[in-house]
Specification:
By secondary structure, this protein is of the alpha/beta class. The chain contains 12 helices and 15 strands. The strands form 3 sheets. It has a 6-stranded antiparallel sheet. A 6-stranded mixed sheet has the order 8-12-13-3-14-15, with helices on both faces. The structure holds adenosine-5'-diphosphate and magnesium ion (MG).
């Protein structure tokens, strides 16, 4: 698939933007703080409904517009997506309403597919992207929450059922935790707890199983790419799922074994359910004491091993970057295999930090993509051959102009 047109209104530093895009590679270049990252963010936001950078969605509204003295401020992101079979128009509206007298603001989002209003979640799956960021290395060194977020965002782009289960799970989890706290305080009833536990087990077991299968598939492809294209067969990377499917006292090795069991073809939904139900039963007293649910996919983690050792503790920065590159390249192949269509690649200043071999591997992936949008401060870091084939656009203070031709123009 590819985006043929992007239109932004009051999004970040873009007051108004109408931009035609073509398939193949597009290079956005320009000085710092001009809007390159913001443009990739807009596309990613339409694909996932989440921003990789903002803490709150209302930060995405252009601040001059948001601060103007208007009762309603609307930001708008629209893309025209071309797939193998159809053209789709996706729109997200960011709406800030001011209640003058109460001096309160309300913020909401509206989503339209082909000009029809749909639920936020129904935007997912129409536009699929793989995003490369310099800070992706935090997937290795950062918190488990970041690694869960990665699994969820990636899976939600291709699996609506997963996304629905996840959203319901999070709601039920909150309800169960509230009840646990009430029970501890003496105001909640223990009789109601099994209702929430059962719901959580139902949804949680679906999530655990899907994540396990996803990571197993991604692990195989990551290992292959890493071995064949990035390290010339010198190093072996592994991904391991560490599901939270048992109470305390379980070792990491035992959790990894549970992860393998979850991904195994012969494991049935019913056995996963009874396993999770059992774990919840075991930790119930602790749950009440802590006012929080101790087992379930909201406590999951996964990790990288390089030549058998934890990459987060023993890997060099270069090895960590290479592993992330392998993961992202694998993600592209995985998404293509699952959906039958190539995702759009978004690369934010990642080319600059790679050495020659890995840069070449990445640029080869970029050139074989149906559409890739890259940013850089300096186009000179790309080869003349690459630049000759890519469309170059200059980004300057929220405006985008085609690059001036530097050589002879071939008509
Ligand atoms: N909500 C907003 N409204 C207007 N401008 C914004 C908003 N959020 C960020 N900016 C501005 O956008 C610019 C950063 O754009 P960015 O895309 O990150 O630049 P770069 O070209 O370096 O990637 C900064 O000048 C920042 O002040
Ligand atoms: Mg940037």
């Amino acid at each position: 698939m590819y985006i043929s047109h992007l239109s932004l209104t009051n999004f970040r530093n873009y007051g108004r933007l109408e931009l035609d895009l073509s398939s193949g590679a597009t290079l956005l270049y320009g000085h710092n703080a001009q809007g390159k990252t913001n443009l990739l963010e807009a596309i990613y936001y339409l694909a996932t409904t989440r921003s990789p950078h903002a803490d709150y969605d209302n930060q995405l509204l252009n601040w001059d517009a948001a601060e103007a003295d208007e009762p309603v401020v609307v930001g708008r992101l629209v893309v025209q997506v071309q797939t193998a079979v159809e053209t789709k128009r996706l729109e997200m509206r960011l709406i800030l309403e001011r209640n003058g007298r109460a001096r309160t603001n309300s913020f909401r989002r509206e989503v339209l597919v082909d000009r029809r209003k749909v639920r936020l979640m129904d935007l997912l799956g129409h536009l699929r992207v793989v995003l490369f960021l310099p800070e992706d290395v935090q997937l290795i060194t950062g918190s488990p929450g970041e690694r869960r977020r990665y699994m969820d965002i990636t899976l939600c782009q291709i699996d609506a059922a997963y996304c629905r289960a996840l959203s319901q799970y999070n709601k039920v989890l909150e309800q169960r935790n509230a009840l646990l706290r009430q029970i501890a305080e003496g105001s909640g009833s223990l009789d109601v707890l099994p209702i929430f536990t059962d719901k959580l087990v139902n949804l949680g077991s679906q999530i655990l199983r899907r994540r396990a299968q996803f990571l197993a598939e991604l692990a195989r492809e990551t290992q292959r790419v890493h071995y064949e294209s990035l390290t010339d067969g010198r190093e072996t990377i592994r991904l391991q799922y560490i599901p939270r499917l048992a109470g305390n006292g379980i070792t990491e090795e035992e959790s990894v074994a549970l992860g393998d069991w979850l991904a195994a073809a012969e494991t049935t939904p019913a056995t996963v359910k009874s396993r999770l139900a059992e774990a919840m039963q075991q930790t119930q007293a602790m749950d009440i004491a802590r006012g929080a649910t101790n087992v379930g996919p909201h406590r999951d983690d996964w990790r990288f091993l390089l030549n058998g050792r934890a990459l987060s503790s023993y890997g060099s920065r270069g090895q960590q970057r290479t592993a992330i590159l392998a993961l992202k390249m694998a993600e592209i192949n995985w998404m293509t295999a699952v959906t039958g269509e190539q995702p759009i690649l978004l690369l934010d200043e990642v080319v600059a930090e790679l050495d020659a071999q890995r840069r070449a591997a990445l640029l080869q992936t970029v050139q074989s993509a149906q559409q890739a949008i890259l940013t850089a401060t300096d186009p000179a870091m790309f080869t003349a051959e690459f630049l000759a084939r890519a469309a170059s656009l200059k980004v300057e203070n929220g405006r985008i102009t085609p690059a001036k031709s530097t050589g002879t123009t071939i008509l």
